[in-house]
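User: Hey, quick favor. My workstation is busy. Could you predict this chain's structure for me?
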Amino acid sequence: MTLMTRRSVLVAGTATAGALLVPASTALASSAAATGGKISVGADETYVLSRTTRVSMLSIAEGGKIAAPDGYSLTLTVDGVETGQLLTKTGGTETLIAAGTYRGDVVLTVAEANPVTYETLTFPFRQALYVGADGVVRAKSVLTSVLGGRLTDAHATNVSITSTGECFDGVVVENAAYTLRQPRITLTGNGRCDFVGYGAAVVGTDSDTTLLVDGASIATKGVVRTGVIADDGANVIVKNSTIRARNGVLPDDYQATVETPYMQSAPWMLGIDGNVRATNLLGADTKATYINSTVTSETWGALSVEGGSALRLTAINSSVGNTGAYGYGTYAIGDATVRVLGSRFDVGSYATICAGPAASIHYGDSTREAVAKLNSKLELGLSAAELAALPVRNTVINSKHFGWMFFGTGTLKVDGGTVVNSEKTTFLNKGQQTTITVDGSGGARLNPGNGIILQMMELDDPGPVMVDGRMMNVGVYTEPTDDPTKDSGFDVTAVHTADGAASFSSIALKGDFYNGMRKGKNMVLTFDDSTVEGVISASRTKHAVSTIDSSNFYELGEVTNTVQAAVNNGVIVQLNSGSTWRVTGTSYLTKLVVDAGASVAGAGGRTLTMTVDGAATDLEPGATYLGAIVLEVA
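Assistant: No problem, here it is.
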């Protein structure tokens, strides 16, 4: 039991802290001692500090506690660095200053509480700088952690913020127009929730917020210690900046989950790992744009989008990627629009994960026309001089694994001079309705290292499992061993809305296309004025292992193909005028349309034969073939 007594506390140095904005009131304290510019809190004692206080030493014994009154938060800075704060339990939201001795310019800031509710939890935000509709709100800010530079109600220039405690935010802007110019924000230690920004470097939230971050250097290291959060209708513009997020150490008792209030690690079922994303975009009608910036996460994701509606994520002339082995460049969920123009992606796993169900994704060039249009549409505020200074660039993707992965419905457009260099398959479609268009007229190229341009396969994500009422990431994928059962009601020769469709124009392609679906979904391919050299076929896929769980998550999406006649996985190929398919191996189709100005031939001059429903059939331009089609080369 803690004995609480009421007494006035006068601490040497307090008078110099008056400008730091504190509610003046009597302190409630236990028998803790506050003498000679020092505060000592004994074991199992609680010391309630009611106003901001500066001392030369703070000592907290094990079991001791120092806190602010109800309705306020308490933050410790030592020599201008926020420190000492730790979460009281895994999955919780409250923090306390850890036991220990702190020496130097020790300031304990008592600030007005800033509780933020997300779903079932309330997160008690503490932030170095809080900006509201009327400018900087000193009562909610920990200004002793904002060093150097110039701070006004409209902008902060050349300020530095450093944190080594947990769950401390750098800058929170809500209901305001604000500019951060050349801030230096360094956060080390875990955050707690990147669906709300608890522990993030920069948060812009609310539909009345326009937050410009220009020339920033943001470095974070910790679990969900996110660099930039855009939420709840805000317009966040980041330019000429560097954002780097590195993984932290998860608590020993953390249990991986996809329940967003508690999620602190990447869902391994996506074929990735890690515990921090560099950025996140959330809410409704929120916009986040990154211009001439570098954004990297160690793993997990660099530019993420989560939930919400009408979200718009844009990267222009930026460098984006993962410094580790796994992770994505961008994430597209809901009806989000993701645009990547003139940027370089160096990613671990995927350029984009498309989670659907109505996502729109575009990779192309940063042409002056395109950037000017986005400047107006997204209200980026780029001046004529800035627009003129932005060079026109193509997009280059370098992936250690795949190009794009679909585990939800989505639309993808690739054009301009976009170059995709992936060690594995370019387009990995896990049983989803897709509309993929690739326009090579501007020089776009697809270079899959494993020789597969498009792979359709069943979804191998085992999903979460309910454990004691919680959705936990403990599922196990098991490879099917039986043959797929024919669905007599599914037409493998017809085009369905839910099929996986891809069209290619004015491009030279070298690689294979496989439909390894077991359930009813066709692969529909259209080629205009293009050449394709490879196998296009129905297939049976097989993982290298029979089961996949969190220990071998990297096996997800990794399959081999055995070509065979379609069961419920039709392959429909349409070769329009100016297109040529040079067949490199046995291919099983269900429909082949060859325009009068198109051709099909064996690669390298080899003899090509075709059977339809078992009958030898001549392959003629201007004809359409339906049925069990087999093309073979000598």
